[in-house]
Amino acid sequence: MANTRVAVAKGFSVAVVVLLAVIGAYVLLALGGFSDSGLLVYLLTLSFALTGTRGVWTGRYKVAAVGAVGMAVAAALQAAFLVGLAAMLVVAVVLGYSGRAREHLDSE
């Protein structure tokens, strides 16, 4: 069960980054680009998502938590959809951490 939680957490975190990348590509290619500070805010959100994903994949859940909280704050300033993605990243961090903690307890 612990390995399943870690696998789901990794999948959720990658899904967040892929969705953000698709959204960015759509805005750049189909809509003609970002507005004044839109690119900076988008890159900030993407960097937090990448930090959270990297933390989940490497097992550094404090780094993942910083990325998830940072993405949640940046997303709250933008759109409700991004808040949903941030919540998905937070769920990934919690699932991964609980799976790792459970695996650690089972091995003792």
How would you explain this protein's 3D organization?
- The structure is a single chain.
- The radius of gyration is 15 Å and the shape is elongated.
- The model has no long low-confidence stretch (mean pLDDT 85).
- By secondary structure, it is mostly helical.
- The chain is 86% helix and 0% strand.
- The protein contains 4 helices and no strands.
Keywords:
4 helices, mainly alpha, about 110 residues
Please describe the biggest sheet, giving its number of strands, its sense, and whether it closes into a barrel. none
How large, in whole angstroms, is the Cα Rg?
15 Å
Tell how many strands the DSSP assignment holds. Answer: 0
Distance N to C terminus:
16 Å
Helicity range: over 70%
Q: Uncertain regions: pLDDT < 50 for 5+ in a row?
A: none
Rounded mean pLDDT is 85
Secondary-structure-based class equals mainly alpha
What fraction of residues sit in β-strands? under 5%
The arrangement of helices and strands along the chain is: HHHH
Q: What is the approximate shape? A: elongated
Number of helices, where a helix is a run of at least 4 consecutive DSSP H or I residues: 4
